[in-house]
Every structure is written in structure tokens, then in C-alpha cells.
Amino acid sequence: MDVEEEEKTGIVEPCVGMEFESEDAARNFYSEYARRLGFVVRVMQRRRSGIDGRTLARRLGCNKQGFSPNIRTAAGPGPDKKPRPSAREGCKATILVKMDKSGKWVVTRFEKDHNHPLVVTASGFSSSWLPDLQFPIVLNAYRNLKTTCVCKKTPFLSESSIVKSFDWYMVALGIPSSQYDRMFYLRSLLQKAMLLYHILLFALPLTGDKDKKIEELMKELEHQEHLCATYREKLVSFMNNVEEQTEEMASKIQLIVNNVRKVESEVQNFPRRR
């Protein structure tokens, strides 16, 4: 994307060598770029320091990157069962940012091409971000944490418990608990409001009440847009908090594992008494 195209669309495209003051600034920039372009960001990988646990590199990408294994197909679907369509399409769009010696975060790799359609709604938000409410980030963090822990006696919440807690949070926000309904709930609010607006715009008689009702409808539309933005902000904040807590727990468990290994090594080196 050249300078003229950026000025026309208002979308600033990342490039190799671009610098940011922090990891959050880099992530927010790419998330805003994705929102304007019409795709959803997935947190892919991170590289941490083996000394103090700091994040040294972070890779973000399109949520349609990779391929989802089809469990039903692998197990042999029955006559009444149909394989679920995969939400991933092997998209290669990704960005890699690393922290340099000065403490700034620099883009070292950027792939912009997508192999699927990009859709942006009238409000500027991607219409495909809602399927991410299936909680993949938290479950991936949970599985990584469970794999890291070598002490089998350490209790863990089951994945179903985590999903149920997330579903409870969604219901508390007034969003349907069904994952299928959840995917289209917020978007449908805007679609219904726009439909009512166009119906009233052409169906109401040319009287003074028409302008009043249109004004009321526009206020309701703005209210629904505000609700959508609020729900999205709360959900993103919630998932970020869970991710931070999971990373903190993983660091503590790793410290415990290192201490246990150190003690085991000292015990093995200690001369045995006969």
C-alpha cells in the first residue's frame, strides 16, 4: 500500500523497520489496522527471556491462519452427522515484532496478503470478529500452562470449567450463551436498526412526526452502536486479563519446577551413606 492509497483510505500499513514504544503499542496498532482492513487478530506466538521472563518477541496474525482439525471427519461421521466447516483457511497474514537493545519494539517481518475475503462493516469494525468469542486464546494459554507443569499433583481447572465461566460472563453482559447465536448477536443489532431506519424513511407520511421518529431512530442506532463497542471493549479487556494472569501463573510454576529440579540435582550429587 503506497502513500497515496494510505491517504485515500486512511489505513496505515505496517512495514519492516517500523518502531513502537511498547509491545502494547505494537499490538494496538496492528489490531486497529486489522479492524480497518476487515480481519481479526490472533495472538500466535511469543518468545520470552530465560532470565527474567520478559517478552522479547511477539507474533500476531489473522485468525484464519492455519487449519483446524475436523474431529468428526477423523472419527468417521455417521449418517446423520455432517463435518463442521473449519473457521481457519490457512491464511499467511502475520506480523512479527521484537524488542531491540534500546527497549523499542521493531517490526522484523510482515505478511499482508490474505487468502480470504476481508469484510468491513459501516461502523468500521470487521464483521468476522464475533466468532472469536469461542475463547480460543484462553484455552490455548490453559493448554500451554498445563503442558508446562511437570508436577502431576498440581490441580487444574478443566477446559469445560473455563468455558462455562466465560459463558457466564457473556450472559451477565446480556449476550446469548449459545456460541452460534453469539456470533451474530451484536451484528444483528446494527442490521435491524439500519433496516428500521430505511423502512421508516420511505414508509412514514410526510408530516412533522416523520423527522421526529427518524431522529429517535437515529438515537437508538447510535445507542446500539455504543453498546456493541462497549461489549467488545469489555470482552477484549476480560480476555487480556485472563491471558496476563495465565502468563503470571506459568512463570510461577516454571520457577517452582526449576527449584524442584535444583533440589533433585543436589540430592543426587549428595554422597550416599552406607
From TrEMBL:
Pfam families: FAR1
InterPro entries xref list: FAR1_DNA_bnd_dom
Domain of life where this protein originates: Eukaryota
Coiled coil: 214-248
Annotated ranges, domain FAR1: 28-119
Keyword Coiled coil on entry: yes
Keywords: Coiled coil
Name of the protein: FAR1 domain-containing protein
